[in-house]
Amino acid sequence: MSIENHTLSHEFPELKDRIHTLKASDHHFARRFDEYNDLDREVRRLEDEGSPRADETMEDLKKKRLALKDELYKMLTA
After folding, report:
1. How far is the C-alpha of 17 from the C-alpha of 20, rounded, in Å?
2. What is the C-alpha separation between 53 and 15, in angstroms, rounded?
């Protein structure tokens, strides 16, 4: 099973330089970026294991990841 990559640099390759700049200069962005990456790793790990958690739990994790991605995108494009 192929696990889809949702890292920000993969999702928004055109914003790679902006991501790097904000990670270095904006502490709030850096914290949210780390939180997003941790959550993405957790979702991918669970998917790789065959999702041992309830479907509801996985959906909640994915919704939280999407909300974080939306928040980070707004910061990147502001």
Report:
1. 5
2. 33
